[in-house]
Amino acid sequence: MPSRSANWILIACALVIGLGLGVLAIDRWVVKRDLPPKEQQLAALAEDFGLTLRDDDVSLAELRALLSPFAATTGAPDRIGPALSRSDGERLLWLFEYSSRETAIARVGKPDVHAEVTLFGILLDLGPGPDLPAWSQAEDSRPPAPPHTVDSIARLARLDGYRMAMHGRRVLFVSTLQTWALKQVAEQRTSAELHPGLFNSAMKVEVQLALDTVNAMDLDMAPLDRFYQIDIGPIDLPKPDASGLRSALEESSRQAKEQLDRDMAELRERMARQREENRARFEARLQQFRDNAGVGNERLERAEAAPEAPALAEPADRGQ
C-alpha cells in the first residue's frame, strides 16, 4: 500500500499536470485564438523588414556552424530556427530563435530536471576585414576597447536582457533567461510579448539598438543599414536665406534627431508597458488555476481524513 508521502507526491503531480493543461488551454483558445499561423507571421516579418526566410536544413546547418565559436554565450542549442537573414552586400544579418536546455528543478542527490527555453539571437557577419578580439560578455563583463568605444558601451548597456560576443568578423547578441525556466516556458507559450523573440513587437527596436551598438564601435567600415525607419511625420523647415542656410539646416537636423530619440523612447516604454500588462493578465489567470487547484486539494484532504465505512454483511443464502 502506498505511503502517505507517496500519495501526496501523486496529488502534487496531478495538480502540476492540471495547471499545465490549463495554461496550454488559455494559450490555445484565449491568447492565440486570433493569431495567424506561424508561416504567415514569418512571411509578414520577411516582407516588412526585407528579410529572407532561411528555414531549410542547409541554411540552418550554415547558421549552426557560424554559431559554433560562441558556445560560451549560447550554450549548446538543441534546436535552431526559425531563422531569417538580410544582406547589404558583403555583410549579413541573421535573426533567429533557438532552444536552450535550462535547469528547471535542482535536486540534491538526483539528476536535475531541465526545460527547453526559447531564446532570440542577432548575428552579424561583417565581411572582409581584420578579426575582432574574441570576447564573450557571458565570461567577461568588460567590453574590449578598442573596438568598443564609450558610445558603443553605453548603447550596449541599453540592451537589457541580452549578452554580446565577438569572434573573427562576427558579432552576436542573444537574449538571456529572464526568470526561472518553467515560468519562462509557460509565459512564452502564453504570449510572445513577455520575452524577446522574432514575434515580439519590440524586436525591431532591439535589433536596431544592436546595429547601433556595432555602428558606434571603432571598426573602420561603412555604417550598417538601418533595420527599420520610424515615420516621425513632416518637419516644418523655415525658408532660409542664403546667409543662414547652413545654421537652419543644422538646427533642423538637431530637432529631427531629438524627435527620433523621443519616438524611440516612447516606443520602448509602450512595449515595456504592454509586456507588463500581458504579464499581469497571465499571473491573474495562473492564480485562478491555483485557487481552483487548492479547492480540489481540500476535498482530497477531507476524503482522506474521513473514517472508513464498515464492510457490508454477506447476504444470506436464499436457499436456506
Care to describe what's here?
- The chain is about 45% helix and about 20% strand.
- With about 325 residues, it is of the alpha+beta class.
- It has a domain at about 35-215.
- A seven-stranded antiparallel β-sheet has the order 1-2-3-4-7-6-5, sandwiched between helices.
- A hairpin with a 4-residue loop joins strand 2 and strand 3 (about 90-105).
- Helix 1 (about 5-30) runs antiparallel to helix 8 (about 245-305) and helix 5 (about 150-155) packs antiparallel against helix 7.
- It is globular.
- The protein starts with a helix and ends in a 15-residue tail after the last helix.
- The model has no long low-confidence stretch (mean pLDDT about 80).
